[in-house]
Amino acid sequence: MSVLWLAVAAFAIGTEAFVIAGLLPVIASDLQISLAATGQLVTAYALTYAVGSPILAVTFNNLDRRTVLTLALCCFIAGNLLAVLAGSFAVLLASRMLMAVGAGLCMPTALAVAVAIASPERRGRAIALVTSGMTIATVLGVPLGTWIGNHYGWRATFILVAGLGAIALAGLLFGLPRGLPRNTATLGQRLAVARHSAVLRALLITSFWAMGGLTVFSYLAIPLHNLRFSPTEISLALLIFGVAAAIGNMLGGTLADRIGPVPTATLGLVTMMMALILQSIALKFAPPEYARPAVLGLIFFWGIGGWAFYTGQVAHLVHIEPHASMIALSLNASAMYLGFAAGGALGGIVLTALSPTDLGWVGGSSVATALAMVLLRGRRAQLKTA
């Protein structure tokens, strides 16, 4: 039951992290700033998470895990409430950074706690349950938050997320035992794992994958709006992505067990790359009546491929560092959010220098870089065993 509350916390954090993509147009209109500038709300959040997460984990090493989770969720909730009260873009930006501090401390701690309270034979399922909170957020939380934000104002979405965070906090306060094992990994130990050449390559692959996805996802509402999608239809598109992400997550786990993590990651990247590039082609050249269903279909395959890759990548990292898997996964989360930050910034540049229809091929090129690195990694492995 305790792991379930950790999943609820992940659900709240996942909702907040991804719902911003559906709110950018209404935030830009309300605060009277450009869409490219508004997109930096994604960059600031992701960069704060990427840099802050490992530092915070070391800073709070000696605190009880229950206390750490309480502090993290209080910080996350406070950030959302500050966003509700934000009267300027600067304050909203600061609120997103405060949310990222809470999320960056909460998620690695939640994974560590899930491992600590689960029996050895159930640890994999405990980790999967926590991470499923993020996946389910893309299915339910993001479309719901987008719909609420477009119908009742974007501040209402942050009220929703603050409420979800409060529910998770209450559940953990009453359902989580005290005296949980503490995370003893120092910053030096984390850096030692990162210096492992195979881990470093994996982290770079994760960053390029994340950058490609967020280049498009951060600004997805803009090309959809240009295709005359209504706010409700944009929420539907995000729901389709979320359902596909959930399917991809489960499919990736199954394939990782059957054909191996690396082939699974490769298939996921190929699917995602093609979906993003074809999205640009559909937006540029297809008549609107054909582009609308085509884009929805490509969003579906993008979600499946992207999250199948992520599951395979996590399994691969655990295989590389079986005795320091939590450190490797924490670093992978930082690499992912660093890629998210770069993707938010790159998408803003594309909007400024090119057009919304170019987001897909630019994002797809980043994913193609990740794919090339995976294939090169496999080639090197074959040469070593030959």
Automatic annotation (TrEMBL):
This is Predicted arabinose efflux permease, MFS family. InterPro entries: MFS (IPR011701), MFS_dom (IPR020846), MFS_Efflux_Transporters (IPR050189), MFS_trans_sf (IPR036259). It comes from Bradyrhizobium canariense. It is found in: Cell membrane. Keywords: Cell membrane, Membrane, Transmembrane, Transmembrane helix. The keyword Lipid metabolism does not apply. The chain crosses the membrane at residues 33-56, 68-91, 97-119, 126-148, 154-177, 198-222, 234-252, 264-282, 294-315, 327-353, 359-376. The keyword Membrane applies. Its main location: membrane. It holds the Pfam family MFS_1. GO terms for molecular function: transmembrane transporter activity. It is a multi-pass membrane protein.
